[in-house]
Amino acid sequence: MAQFRQSKKLNNVLYDIRGPILEEAERMEARGHSILRLNIGNPAPFGFEAPDAIMKDMVRHLHHAQGYSDSRGIYSARTAVVQYYQTQGIMNLDTDKVYLGNGVSEMITLSLQAFCDPGDEILIPTPDYPLWTASVALSGGTPVHYLCDEQNGWNPDIEDMRLKITPNTKGIVIINPNNPTGAVYSRETLQQIVDLAKEHDLILFSDEIYEKITYDGAEMVHTASLADDDVVCLTFSGLSKAYRVAGYRSGWLAITGPTWKAESYVEGIKLLANMRMCANVPAQHAIQTALGGYQSINDLILPGGRLKEQRDLAYRKLNEIDGITCQQAEGALYLFPKLDTEKFGIVDDEQFVLDLLKEQKILVSHGRAFNWVAPDHFRLVTLPDTETLSKALDRLGEFLSGYQQV
Ligand code: PLP
């Protein structure tokens, strides 16, 4: 009998954040265990409600949102994106160069499908948000990882980036603020990357979905604001994180810079956007309201705000555990602690995460799921309230005090 196998183009496509460990957690839940999920950056289940104005906008427009929209997205939302970026120093964006998507995820996959030919190399950070590596692989391109340096606040190692550029390199991915490390890149660092892109005629893909989640006054600089005349830049952002509506699937892609150099590429993006008709229309209506007016996320990230308090507590408690060191996050919703692999005999970080899950019913993500180079990190989501986080980290400490993998 015929076996229907997945296509060979999936051979190098990995997305382990929702992989076998999550399946094991689901099996445990089905057997009645209560699992503390510290594995996905999904604000709503942790009591982070969306701003009322966004909900009202969606509900109010439901009636008018029954049909397909323009495949780039409704005009008012695309204009709101343009106007928002004008306030951020990105001046040369045209409404026609904004594409709304079912979350940033769709626009990442779509933009790489339209771009990569076999052999094309795309520079991606390690560690990364693994959708980038997966999408380059799926598109037939080759992901090439540049190092982010833990000892230097997880900043991109520009020399390593330079060394990895070959005649086949076509683009550089920047994730800022970064998932999983929490790094927020300085203007100087971003300028160096822009200069490198200019020197080698590369496109920049700047994933800025955490742009509004920064702590302790870290300055968010948009890559496109530095690249204006020189480099084609694709900026990705959306409502999932700062506006806490990950389930509505609402994001965008904005293309700036000397777009005359990328006419064919933009046509390709348009073709793929046409083929999927349009993004979820009710959620498109939330964009204008979200970007204008009061930004309630600020209440959560400033001193006394929930997200900041939780990050501070997690950072402090992690560093108190013997055998863990952790850099502080300047942005986003995660910490990426380092494990003393010698002390714990860890050779397989996935096994470590599985052992923690089975013994303490706590689910985190192993570092290599983020294409990190060694089995010595894991990612923790800082979304639970301080009491829950505190208990979870006590349990992690207890677990590690007796842990020996080999
Ligand atoms: N980019 C990064 C860096 C992310 O962390 C995520 C989600 O966690 C996404 C993109 C996808 O976001 P969306 O919900 O808009 O698809």
Plain-language structure description:
- With 406 residues, the protein is of the alpha/beta class.
- It folds into two domains: 8-49 and 299-401, Aspartate Aminotransferase, domain 1; 52-291, Aspartate Aminotransferase, domain 2.
- Helices cover 38% and strands 15% of the residues.
- The protein is built from 15 helices and 15 strands.
- The strands form four sheets. It has an eight-stranded mixed beta sheet with strand order 2-9-8-7-6-3-4-5, with helices on both faces.
- Strand 4 (142-149) and strand 5 form a beta hairpin.
- Helix 3 runs parallel beside helix 10.
- Bound molecules: pyridoxal-5'-phosphate.
- Belongs to the class-I pyridoxal-phosphate-dependent aminotransferase family.
Fold blueprint:
Elements: H1 20-30, E1 36-37, H2 52-61, H3 75-87, E2 98-101, H4 103-113, E3 121-126, H5 131-138, E4 142-149, E5 155-156, H6 158-164, E6 169-175, H7 187-200, E7 203-207, H8 223-227, E8 233-238, E9 251-256, H9 263-275, H10 281-291, H11 297-301, H12 306-320, E10 324-325, E11 334-335, E12 338-339, H13 341-344, H14 349-360, E13 362-363, E14 365-366, E15 378-381, H15 386-401
Parallel strand pairs: 1-13, 3-4, 3-6, 6-7, 7-8
Antiparallel strand pairs: 2-9, 4-5, 8-9, 10-12, 11-15, 14-15
Helix pairs in contact: 1-14, 2-10, 3-10, 4-5, 12-15
The protein binds pyridoxal-5'-phosphate.
- Structural category: alpha/beta
Using the coordinates above, name the CATH class of the largest domain: Alpha Beta
Quick one: how many beta strands? 15
The CATH architecture name of the largest domain reads: 3-Layer(aba) Sandwich
Tally of contiguous helical segments: 15
Q: Helicity, in percent? A: 25-40%
List ligands, each type once. pyridoxal-5'-phosphate
InterPro entries: Ala_Aminotransferase, Aminotransferase_I/II_large, PyrdxlP-dep_Trfase, PyrdxlP-dep_Trfase_major, PyrdxlP-dep_Trfase_small
Enzyme class: transferase
Protein name: alanine transaminase
GO molecular function: L-alanine:2-oxoglutarate aminotransferase activity; pyridoxal phosphate binding
